[in-house]
Specification:
Elements lengths: L1 H13 L1 H6 L2 H5 L4 H9 L16 E2 L5 E5 L4 H6 L5 H13 L8 E4 L13 H18 L3 E5 L1 H8 L5 H4 L4 E5 L2 E8 L2 H6 L4 H17 L4
Helix pairs in contact: 4-7
C-alpha cells in the first residue's frame, strides 16, 4: 500500500500523471493506437518492466466486438498478447463455439503490464488507467464489449452486484456521453479454477452470439 502511495505521489509531483494519464489533449482528441501505445509505454518504469513486456492487444482493430479482461498474466507477458497460455486456449475454444476467432474480435486488458505476483488491481491502478482504457475503447469504437471477470465488471460498471449476479445481463457503459453495450461474464482463468461455471458462461456466449447475428457485426 505504501509503495502504491509512493508511485501516486511521484505521478503528481513529477507531472507525469498530468502529462500521461490526464493529458487534456489526449482525452479530448482521440489518439491513434500507436499514440496510445506510446502513452502506455511511458508507464513501464513505474511497473519495472521493459518495453517488450507490455501486453497491448490482439485481434482485429476493425472489429465491432471488443473483449476486455483485467490484467496480463505470465503467459501474456511472454507472448506479448492478452489471453495467452491455458487461459487463451480456453477463450479460443469459447469463441470457436460461437463461430468467432481472434481475427474477428479485438482483445485487450484494463492495464497493459503484468502486476507483481499477478496481484489484483488496486484502486490506484484502476484510477491511473481509466483514461487510457477509455481512449482505447474510443479508438476501436466497438458496437459491443464482452467484459471478462469481476475486476473488469467493477472497473467499468462500478456496481455492487457480484459477477455471479451481473453476468449475462447487458448493461450500458458511458464514455464522454457515448454509450457502449457491455455483456459481463466470467474470465476464462476463473473457469479453469471453477469448471462447473462453464455452463453459465455458455449461456452468456449464446447471448453474445445472438447480438452479433441480430446486428450483423461479423
Amino acid at each position: 500500500m505504501q509503495n502504491n502511495k509512493s508511485i501516486f505521489d511521484f505521478y503528481q509531483s513529477s507531472g507525469v500523471y498530468d502529462r500521461v494519464i490526464l493529458n487534456k489533449k489526449f482525452i479530448n482528441n482521440t489518439p491513434t493506437l500507436q499514440d496510445l501505445r506510446d502513452k502506455i509505454l511511458n508507464l513501464k518504469e513505474f511497473y519495472k518492466k521493459n518495453e517488450d513486456e507490455m501486453v497491448f492487444a490482439d485481434g482485429n482493430p476493425n472489429s465491432k466486438i471488443m473483449i476486455i479482461g483485467d490484467a496480463p498474466g505470465v503467459s501474456d507477458e511472454t507472448t506479448g498478447k492478452p489471453f495467452s497460455g491455458e487461459t487463451g486456449n480456453l477463450l479460443d475454444k469459447m469463441l470457436s463455439a460461437i463461430n468467432l476467432d481472434r481475427n474477428k474480435v479485438y482483445l485487450t486488458n484494463i492495464i497493459n503490464f503484468r502486476l507483481a505476483d499477478n496481484k489484483r488491481l488496486s484502486q490506484l491502478e484502476i484510477h491511473n488507467y481509466k483514461s487510457l482504457i477509455f481512449n482505447h475503447i474510443k479508438i476501436i469504437n466497438p458496437k459491443i464489449i464482452f467484459l471478462l471477470g469481476s475486476v473488469a465488471y467493477e472497473f467499468f460498471c462500478e456496481k455492487k452486484n457480484s459477477t455471479t449476479k451481473s453476468r449475462g445481463h447487458w448493461t450500458k457503459l458511458n464514455i464522454n456521453n457515448h454509450e457502449f453495450d457491455c455483456l459481463p461474464s466470467y474470465h476464462p482463468a476463473f473457469l479453469l479454477r471453477q469448471p462447473d461455471q462453464k455452463k453459465a458462461s455458455w449461456e452468456d456466449l449464446k447471448k453474445l452470439k445472438q447480438r452479433i447475428v441480430d446486428e450483423n457485426l461479423c
